Amino acid sequence: MPTEIILPRVDMDMATGKIGQWYVAEGGQVEKGQLLFELETSKAAMEIEAPAAGIVRDVTAKPGDELPVGTVIGRIFSVGEAYAAPSKPAKSEAAKIDTAPATQRAAIVARLEPGSPGGSLRATPKARRIARDAGIDLARVAGSGPHGRIQARDLAAGATMLSAPVAGGKALNFEWLARGTGTPLVLIHGFGADLNSWRPLLSYLPAGRPILALDLPGHGRSPLSGESSIEAMANSVEATLAQEGLGGAHLAGHSLGGAVAMALAIRPTIACKSLTLIAPAGLGPDINGAFVAGFLRAESEAALAPWINLLVGDPQTLGPALVKTTLRQRRDMGGADAQSAVAAALFPQGTQTSNVRSLLSRFSGPAKVIFGLSDQIIPASHAHGLPGTVGLHLFPGIGHMPQLEIRAEVARLLAENAAAADRPA
Amino acid sequence: MTEATRELSFAQAIQDALAIAMVADDRVFLMGEDIGVYGGAFGVTGDLIARFGADRVMDTPIAELGGAGIAVGAALTGMRPVFELQFSDFSTLAMEQIVNQAAKLRYMLGGAVSVPLVIRMPTGSGTGAAAQHSQSLEAWFAHVPGLKVVEPTTPHDAKGMMLAAIADPDPVLIFEHKLLYKMKGQVPEGSYTVPLNKAEVRRPGKDVTVAAAGVMVMKALEAAGALESEGISAEVIDLRSLRPLDIPTIAASVKKTSRLLCVYEGVKTLGLGAEVSAAIAESDAFDHLDAPILRLGGAESPIPYSPILEKAAVPQVEDIVAAIRKLARGRA
Fold first, then answer.
1. Which of B7, B33, B96, B133 does the annotation list as catalytic?
2. Distance (Å) from the C-alpha of residue A71 to the closest C-alpha of chain B?
3. Does the pLDDT at position B286 exceed 80?
4. A257 and A172 in contact (C-beta within 8 Å)?
């Protein structure tokens, strides 16, 4: 079967991309990883590598064409593979998403707020000058340069957003899993899960602290609205917490929720006290693409079980319940389409399109990263090279679900992190 | 006002300047190894010996320090010597006279004397002449107060800067890149001068400023032309004068483009690009920088004899293209 060449998402808030040039012509042969075409976004031009080796056919996008993220723009046939014309114009389902109007784009820039977190922010002298003159808080600008460096062009995009509503997000479904006093713990689940996935952990957490869990867009009871990007999801969580009147939060996120938590942690409105990231996405380029595809595609227990088992170091940990529950929810709530859209945007072809690593260094409170060394979804090696102040907790033999596999340990680390932040300095 | 021009090579333009100066001023004379009967290692002096005689087109022994000493002495007595160092690499032998005498005497004698000396410095790699005949040592001399150091890149400038240098009351070193000698261009007839302290914008652009010296200007122009089709507009500045450096011209350009690339053939470390970068970082253009300043310079090695390695040891057009692209696309 030929491999589809898909217009990837290379920027957090990118809905479409323009083809710059093809480095390989129709009928040309490529090696996997060879430069295939150039993709221009509003911010940058990127060179995209061939996803497979073979002969490039059915190239439908010409230089200058602007197409939605996820559009199939060609196919790669293995050498010797019989050519078969595409049955329909080469456009995938994913092309339907991400057509939200620009007004819904994440508002990544806000007015300067005193006392916003500083940290090791990278910005060019020109960007700093423009921000100074315009009163823009650089801490809330996503940098498009190397190492997340903010360049003048990032402010040009942001400047038009200043008059737009700050929170582009919609309120999400959430539930108070525990009541109590003090700063609440806010739990953000991973891809394909929902707020209920935290319940097994609850009895391990010390009583007394309020706990709020929410459903990410396209998950549980929260509909997918607008664009599927980390920043857009963070906007929705931010709006939800604001409506609930939270004056501060200890953030904890798993996998995709970890990336969202990182994006939230530096927002002044969240007043994030501590940050605990469990097998977080957003720290590196790769993710198990076969898992994402297989998980989404499966319609029976037999088809889903092997993928679910990949989630954990020891499949005995899970039992059959999770497979059944996942399938039932998918049937009842119809989340599969929305999650496919999310996956197409954030994890196309085994690639994480959003890297929020640079945000982590800007969070000044206590932060912990928990990884299972046998994680088969996101490699634990993504935790390498984080700022030295981030606590790293690596568990041998544990997979992608430490919060299920080693509940007591994860609960303890969560509690310790929150307690450290609550302690008067 | 004479507008008449003719096409001359870079070498012919220099010869034209020398002849004009010698006709106009009896004090002007030429010295150097093989510049007389042989016409110069690169043919620059040609048949000038036939026109002006051996007293004014003097072959010197293979003794660069002695030759430089005679030239400095002659200049002190009011003559206007133009001394050719066959390869600028041989300036190592003449260093004492250039750096300790020519550059210092005006200052040490309270302005009572000056040293109106011109030293011609055939320079650079690309001719397969290996490590001792291919260096770009401009930065050594540009470090010395009391010297003027220039590097023309067009026949027009070669002639005009030579005439300006001969007329200048102080020592001027003219670096002539060997690869430019055959390059042709329109050159005005008669006498004219090109200032010894001004850079020149060779190609206007808006995305990236490329400050280049010597033959790298030509390579930068080629790179800028190649990038036009990608919608990248590079401004190419020919530094021309290395001491003094025309920082205001570069700063004005950087204020417009926000990005700077320095390209020079001398060894990258502690070279021209270091000075240009630092001066721009110190200037009021700093707040306009939207990317790190990049440098492309010679490799950290002697120039190799192998033609392939020789090419690899200095910036080439494709290196410049890649660097400009990186800057223009915010990936530097």
1. B133
2. 24
3. yes
4. no
C-alpha distances in Å from residue A206, one per residue of A19, A201, A411:
53, 11, 8
Reported ipTM: the value is 0.83
B133 a catalytic residue: yes
Domain annotation for chain A: domains and CATH numbers: 3-99 (2.40.50.100), 104-159 (4.10.320.10), 174-422 (3.40.50.1820)
Chain B hits for A10, Cβ within 8 Å: none
Using an 8 Å CB-CB cutoff, list chain A residues near B288. Answer: 125-126, 129
Sheet harboring A45-49: ordered strands across?
Answer: A45-49, A35-40, A16-22, A66-68
Q: Which fold has domain B5-188?
A: Rossmann fold (3.40.50)
pLDDT of residue A49: 84
* Residues 6+ away with beta carbon under 8 Å from B37: B49, B59
> For residue B244, is the peptide bond before it cis, meaning its omega torsion is within 30 degrees of 0?
yes
CATH for B200-327, options being 3.10.310.30, 3.40.50.920, 2.60.40.10, 1.20.1050.10: 3.40.50.920
pTM for this one?
0.56
Q: Are A11 and A44 in contact (CB under 8 A)?
A: yes
Name chain B contacts of A129, Cβ cutoff 8 Å.
287-288
Q: Would the CB atoms of A145 and B289 count as touching at under 8 Å?
A: no
| Residues A367, A275 contacting (CB under 8 angstroms) | yes
Per-window interface: A 237-266 vs B, CB < 8 A: none
| pLDDT (0 to 100) of residue A158 | 44
Q: What is the mean pLDDT of residues A204-227?
A: 85
Contact yes or no for A126 and B289 at CB 8 A = yes
Residue B151 among the catalytic residues: no
Confidence tier at A95 by pLDDT (50, 70, 90)? very low
Domain boundaries, chain B: 5-188, 200-327
